[in-house]
Amino acid sequence: MSLNAKAVLSATGLRKSYGASEVVAGLDLALVSGECFGLLGPNGAGKTTTLRLLLGLTRPDGGTISLLGLPVPEKAREARLKVGVVPQVDSLDPDFTVTENLLVYGRYFGLKDHEIQARIPALLEFAELEGKAEASIESLSGGMKRRLTLARALVNDPDVIFLDEPTTGLDPQARHMMWQRLRRLLGEGKTILLTTHFMEEAERLCDRLLIMDKGVAVTTGAPRDLIAEHIEPHVVEIYGDEVKSNCAGLCQRQEQVGETLFCYAADPHDLLAQLQQQCELRYLHRPSNLEDVFLKLTGRELRE
Amino acid sequence: MSLKTEKTDFSPPSLSWRFVSVWRRNFLVWRKLAIPSILGNLADPAFYMLGLGYGLGSLLPEVAGVPYMTFLAAGTLCYSTMNSATFESLYSAFSRMHVQKTWDAMLNAPLELDDVMLGELAWATSKSVLSGVAILAIILALGLADSWLLLWTLPLLVLIGFCFTGLALVMNALSPNYDFFMYYFTLAITPMVLLCGVFYPVEQLPAFLQAVANWLPLTHAIGLARPLVQGEWPQQILAHIGVLLAYGSAGFYLALVLVRRRLLK
Ligand SMILES: Nc1ncnc2c1ncn2[C@@H]1O[C@H](COP(=O)(O)OP(=O)(O)OP(=O)(O)O)[C@@H](O)[C@H]1O
Ligand SMILES: [Mg+2]
After folding, report:
1. Is a pLDDT exceeding 90 seen at residue A278?
2. In A124-155, which positions are buried (b, 16+ CB within 10 angstroms) versus exposed (e)?
3. What is the mean pLDDT of residues A118-145?
4. What is the pLDDT of residue B1?
5. Which candidate in B6, B16, B108, B264 is best for mutational testing of the A interface (most A CBs within 10 A)?
6. Which of A92, A59, A89 is nearest to A76 (CA)?
7. A16, A148, B165, B174: which sits with the fewest CB atoms below 10 Å from its CB?
8. Segment B80-94 mean pLDDT
9. How many whole angstroms from its chain centre is CA A120?
10. Smallest Cα–Cα separation from A218: which of A229, A204, A232?
11. Residues of chain A with pLDDT > 70: what percent?
């Protein structure tokens, strides 16, 4: 397939160790121009490390990377001229106002002040921060800071945007707003590489995604395909201690997690009919989703 | 043409004009607080010089052939410049590197760590030169110098700022937190202030302490500054310059290696 021909970003056999632990252990990925690609994985899976490798901020122990046609890390700096980054940890400049943050950041790209000044109104509009142009960073809410970080990442009109957990810690309103903005960028033809812990976010935004765990890819594909491939279409969650009952024959697969029984079924009619008779039971019937895939493939035990 | 040049932690610094955007970032922050900052540069050493100069000076006939105030002027010039470079490269650079993540933001843009470090070096040097210039203004206002040779202290201030910035950036690269810097003050800065001839000629010290003082860069800064303030050409100019350049360059290179290991691992 001509995937690599159109690849905006590609990596093969990527490896990185810290001490004895191999944090990225042979990862391959390729992003096609204009797509939104999601990198998912539990805490410590190696997502941020992968992004740092792709940006040339740390040297890989093995593998090759090409970003916008340039080899990384050798030409990473040149490649970053056309890349925008929203890091996981906030790095806005607390000594500056909103506008100054954009101005100073634009200078790091070698842009002239008048070029940056000309872009600032559109960037503030994009981030819905028009009224906050002269506000200090500490006066901004979490959502505003995140939007400003996104606007800052756009100051150089990048072709590719890296977003490391852009919506973590945001309320639903702010998250929806972020999603709208990212869709707008995709509409403009930008390529996005996103990490997130919100499966809903990945399902809504990403054309394709890669689930990684302990530094290796567990699966990759379009969200819908992954769900269809790994999980039965219906999920019935039954709550309570006394459910051990005879659901077994009525679904393809079931899983007991604490006091909840998850039943996965191609056709849930009989199961639901039976549950309706046991009116003391609380249960929820829903379509299967990406979270089911994620938990099936990466397990349910806590990390760290 | 493919020239394979693998960069390692030990590669020499890659020098580029890109450092200017880093310098300008720090300058923009400074500009917001310029007035209190300049007042601090002036008032602090002025009280020092006036207090010690008149207070002690009235008890001393002459020191090394000049009034004590004049003697102290050159010491204060070097000491203030050193202090300013040191504070900027320790506390301020550390907050940019570690606390505020300013360096991380720069590294996500098309800047390299070498650009950031060069920007910090240039900035702390600039800021220390400004402190030195404030002392020169005091020296002129008090009529302590009247020779054109005083102008040569300007390039000397750049050299002093470079030297002590390079050294302090090593501490910055090693430090886990702000408290760590106390070691540097206790073990390096304070001994230099007391041994290197700021307050009295190094020749007053016993031989072994003189030998120690001769290894310390502040002695060499003062060795150049004191004659210039008093209107004479210094002795051993190249040796003094060599020592200051060597400390500054070695410090900056070591700091760069350490900071590469710290941030790019
Ligand atoms: N500079 C470093 N030195 C040592 N270990 C590191 C370093 N950076 C990351 N690690 C380790 O590598 C592993 C992967 O970290 P990474 O930040 O890439 O995970 P992540 O998938 O982004 O996790 P999260 O979802 O929590 O952000 C973790 O165990 C982390 O402790
Ligand atoms: Mg992370």
Report:
1. no
2. bebbebeebeeeebeebeebbbbbbbbbbbbb
3. 96
4. 41
5. B108
6. A59
7. B174
8. 97
9. 27
10. A229
11. 95
The pLDDT, as a whole number, for residue A1 is 42
SS3 for A134-168 is: CCEHHHCCHHHHHHHHHHHHCCCCCCEEEEECCCC
Please say if the pLDDT value at position A185 is more than 90: yes
Q: Count of CB atoms within 10 A of residue B234's CB?
A: 20
Q: Could you give the CA distance from residue A29 to residue A217 in angstroms, rounded to a whole number?
A: 9
Does B110 reach chain A within 8 Å, measured CB to CB? yes
Are A147 and A178 in contact by the 8 Å Cβ rule? The answer is: yes
From chain A residues 111-140, the ones with a CB under 8 A of any chain B CB are none
pLDDT at A304: 64
* Ligand 1 site-directed mutation target among A14, A40, A47, most atoms within 8 Å of CB: A47
Closest C-alpha to A158, from A107, A85, A213: A85
Q: Which residues pair with A37 in a beta bridge?
A: A193, A208
- Is there a contact between A43 and A20 (Cβ–Cβ < 8 Å)? no
> Which residue type occupies A163?
L
Please indicate if any CB of chain B lies within 8 Å of the CB of A80: yes
Confidence (pLDDT) at B138: 94
What's the CA-to-centroid distance between A46 and ligand 1, angstroms? 6
Predicted confidence (pLDDT) per residue in A196-250, tens digit: 999 999 999 999 999 999 999 999 999 999 999 999 999 999 888 666 566 667 8
Instruction: Look at residue B2 and tell me whether its pLDDT is greater than 50.
Output: no
Residue A85's nearest CA partner among B21, B113, B108, B263 is B108
**Contact present, B29 and A96 (Cβ < 8 Å):** yes
Look over chain B and give the mean of its residue pLDDT values, rounded to a whole number.
Answer: 94
Inter-axis angle of helices A172-187 and A142-153, nearest 10: 10
- The reported pLDDT for the residue numbered A301 is 83
Tokens linked to B175: 């430090």
Cα B17 to middle of ligand 2, angstroms = 32
Q: For chain A, how big is the Rg over CA atoms in Å? A: 22
> What is the Å distance from ligand 1's center to A202 Cα?
21
Q: Is A17 helix (H, G, I), strand (E, B) or coil?
A: strand
pTM over 0.90: yes
C-alpha pair distances (Å), A47 with each of A41, A88, A178, B167, B261: 7, 10, 20, 36, 21
Tokens at residue B150, please?
């005083």
Measured distance CA(B23)–CA(A2) in Å, rounded:
45
Pick the residue of B107, B112, B118, B263 with the most A CBs within 10 A to test the interface with A by mutation. Answer: B107
